[in-house]
Amino acid sequence: MYLRLTTICFCFLTSLSFGQNNEVPDIHMDFESYDPPSTLVVPEHPVTQAKYPFIDVHSHHWRMAEQDLSILVRQMDSLNMGINVNLSGRGGTILSQMTQSIDSQGYANRLVVFTNIEFRSIDEADWEENTTAQIKYDVEQGARGLKIYKSQGMFHTDSAGNRIPLNHPKLDAVWSVCGELGIPVLIHAADPKPFWQPLDSLNERWLELKLKSGRKREADDPAPWEVIIGEQHDVFRRHPATTFINAHFGWFANDLDHLGQLLDEMPNMYVEFGAVIAELGRQPRHAKAFFTKYQDRILFGKDSYKPEEYPTYFRVLETAAEYFPYYKKYHAFWKMYGLDLDDEVLKKVYYKNALRIIPGLDASLFPK
């Protein structure tokens, strides 16, 4: 019996041999290493430049006051990017230096800055007065909106060590003054829901969390995902006169029906798809129907500014390409497909919607 089993095992291993040396291949490859090129032969439809000039409403440039902006603008031109919105204006003197540098270098119609505020001093008696005064000053200096970072609704704490929620009563003054000034508020709240779920074989973000372990959250660290997302929606509902841009599709790019319900409920909420294009590219028919229905509420956003990554966004939005990869396997190990959006929908997503809700943008840079 032992001899027979040994013979069977030997024959099985031999059957796996390839090449002239009859070497047994490594069959113990881990998932991180498994990334074979596809053998599928289909039209590829590469796109290196957007079909229409576009406005990227989600970008970050921390040293804009100091850099040679002609380099950035040349990169924008190569992508057909009309306007880049820098969400990292920080406010006060730094923001003023940024806008002055942009103006002095002749790019005031191409580069836009949003301001930021500080949550951690919220217990100070004059916090509301000082913060709203800062926002007004920043708008006078050229700020076109306010960006709220995820850290502000997750990790920033008051003097007693309590997490400061986005719907904290003192923040009402901030949302209200933005409405009065006519500037949008772009909010990043929480992160993808799987970051809060068990790190096991059922977690679709397992590879990302294994490689980027700092992104893993416990169920109530710093609060349940549903709580943080709910606080954001509470703000949107209670301030209907203020325009909000929900970053990253509000982390509902994987549940577009639910996102549609939220858009129906809150007409002052818009969405941008920075860092979630891979979610849209794996459901092309459903995503195209969503973009068509909510074509007036969707903005182009990329998040990290890396020129080499934009063509993937163009390819998803503009083409009918099939089965192509995202540029970060750990972020999306699946393949994507193009949505092949209609031209009018594409124009609204690329620039018309942003021109409508962000004040002072140069509409002459874009087709009618």
Please, could you describe this protein's structure?
Helix 4 runs parallel beside helix 6. This protein has 368 residues and is an alpha/beta fold. Strand 6, helix 9 and strand 7 form a beta-alpha-beta unit. The chain has one domain (53-362): TIM Barrel, CATH 3.20.20.140. The chain has a five-stranded parallel sheet with strand order 4-5-6-7-8. The chain is built from 13 helices and ten strands.
Question: What is the structure about, briefly put?
Answer:
With 368 residues, this protein is an alpha/beta fold.
Detail the topology: elements first, then pairings.
Elements (H helix, E strand, L loop, with lengths): L1 H14 L38 E6 L9 H11 L1 E6 L5 H13 L6 E3 L13 H14 L5 E3 L1 H5 L17 H10 L3 E3 L18 H6 L13 H14 L5 E3 L9 H10 L3 E4 L4 H5 L2 H10 L4 E2 L10 H9 L5 E2 L9 E2 L6 H15 L11
Parallel strand pairs: 1-2, 2-3, 4-5, 5-6, 6-7, 7-8
Antiparallel strand pairs: 9-10
